[in-house]
Structure formats: structure tokens, C-alpha cells
Write a structure and sequence with these properties.
The two termini are 15 Å apart. The chain has 166 residues and is mostly helical. The model has no long low-confidence stretch (mean pLDDT 96). The protein has a domain of 114 residues. Helix 1 packs across helix 3, helix 1 packs across helix 7 and helix 5 runs antiparallel to helix 7. The chain is built from 7 helices and no strands. The longest helix is centred in the last third of the chain and has 30 residues.
């Protein structure tokens, strides 16, 4: 697979997987489950550019211009980064013949980023320890990242099918 096709494939898999995750989040919202507003991701990034990494509570930090748009861009950029890392570890052959377990395992392991980086930076503590229900928050994050991993697999499988690899 040439470099341009590889990059394009990773981008398509990332977009597909992130969309699957977004559909899951939409379903949770419809069921009345509180989910992350990507505006808070954009707000955090806006403050990060001003030199502030950590917040006591990101929701109480001053809003930044375009925070919702920045948040969504960062969300999809993170999906792209994660898809790229998966392909680096699983190999580009995985894109030709995707299997569930590497993608699902990667999705589950990727939950360490929000639990150990994002949540502490937002003021929620490591593993959501400063939230009213840390275990529930961690399990919700784990499920969401598991869905992302499943989305990586589904997207790669669909792409392989379209390209005639499957």
C-alpha cells in the first residue's frame, strides 16, 4: 500500500470509528446519561494555549472563543491519532484484513488517556476520583472507548470490503 493510500485509509478508519463513538454518545444522551460536552475540550485547549494545563473545574473556567468547534476538531484529531497508533502497532496488513481483537483491545487501552490525562486536567481527578460516582464515570469511559475500538474494526472492515481486500 503506498503512503498516500495508507494515510487516506487511516483517515477514513478514524472518521468512521469516531462517528461510531459519537452515535454511542448520542444514544447515551437520548437515554438521559450525562456525557462530555466537547466545548469543554475546546475550552481546556484554549486555556492550554495560554499556559494553563489544569483546572479545578473546567466548566467554571472562562469560556474561550470557538470552544465548541475546537472541541470537535480535537475530538476527531484524537480519533485520527488513535487510529494511526493502532495501525503502527497492528501493521498496515491489519487494514487489509482487519480483526476485532487488536482494535477492541486498543480502544479499551486508549481509555487511559481520558482517565489519566484529560479528567485530571479538567479537575475531575485521576480515574474520575473527584466526581460524585468515580466507578460509574470510569465504566462509562471504558464502554465508550470500547465502542470506539469496535468502530475502528467496523470502519476498517468496511474499507477493506470496498477496496476488495475482505
Amino acid at each position: 500500500m503506498n503512503a498516500l493510500v495508507l494515510v487516506f485509509s487511516i483517515v477514513l478508519v478514524a472518521i468512521g470509528a469516531t462517528l461510531v463513538m459519537d452515535l454511542w454518545t448520542y444514544l447515551l444522551k437520548r437515554l438521559g446519561v450525562a456525557t462530555l460536552s466537547y466545548a469543554m475540550v475546546g475550552r481546556w485547549a484554549g486555556h492550554l494555549f495560554k499556559g494553563r494545563w489544569r483546572h479545578a473545574a473546567i466548566g467554571q473556567a472562562a469560556p474561550v472563543g470557538g470552544e465548541l468547534y475546537w472541541g470537535w476538531a480535537i475530538h476527531y484529531g484524537t480519533g485520527l491519532m488513535f487510529a494511526m497508533v493502532l495501525v503502527i502497532f497492528a501493521g498496515e496488513g491489519w487494514l487489509r484484513a482487519p480483526t476485532l481483537w487488536p482494535a477492541l483491545l486498543f480502544g479499551v487501552v486508549s481509555v487511559l488517556v481520558p482517565l489519566c490525562v484529560v479528567q485530571p486536567a479538567f479537575g475531575a481527578g485521576y480515574f474520575a476520583s473527584r466526581t460524585p460516582a468515580p466507578l460509574r464515570a470510569c465504566l462509562r469511559s471504558l464502554a465508550t472507548h470500547g465502542v470506539f475500538g469496535f468502530g475502528l474494526f467496523l470502519s476498517a472492515l468496511a474499507l477493506a470490503e470496498v477496496r476488495g481486500f475482505a
